[in-house]
Known about the structure:
Blueprint: E1 12-15, E2 22-27, H1 33-43, H2 50-59, E3 65-69, E4 72-85, E5 93-104, H3 113-129, E6 133-139, H4 143-151, E7 155-160, E8 170-176
Parallel strand pairs: 5-6
Antiparallel strand pairs: 1-2, 2-3, 3-4, 4-5, 6-8, 7-8
Amino acid sequence: MGEVTEKLEGEEELVAKDGKTTYKIREFSLKDLQSVTYINRAVLPENYPDFFFVEHHMNFPKSFIVAELGGKIVGYVMTRVEFGWSNLRRGGVARKGHIVSIGVLPEARRLGVAYNLMIRSMRAMKRFYNASEVYLEVRVSNAPAIGLYTKLGYKIVSTLRGYYQDGEDAYIMARTLSDYS
């Protein structure tokens, strides 16, 4: 299975699912900006301008996480925390973590990188920003991502029709953060 992140801050070296590769995860810093924007453009159809990444880093630095493999940034997760209607409790309001964007380069997939980026960011959103639940949008056709999120305890709570620029629908997937400390 590989190691699962335990830290909340700083750099952490983890053994990948293959049992021999190691990679590091840590908080994003501004020196990572070009690498993260490259990953965003290389693996995702939804691209963001540099200032969007900088803004999320400035507001939520503890839950914007990058992964390094062999000294190269190979993945990231960018988040924010919002206050609004709960995705899990009808009619209730919540402080919600939002997985805004996650990307992992093809050469770093199937190692547990995305899994650990998600866990570290969810724990940070709970601990540092008092989020009680977390949600994300995912293309209905993205079976690998849906599988990862399901493994992490997310459930499909609704569908957004025509959410993406190309007209594809998105699932909103959400989960509580009550099991994180």
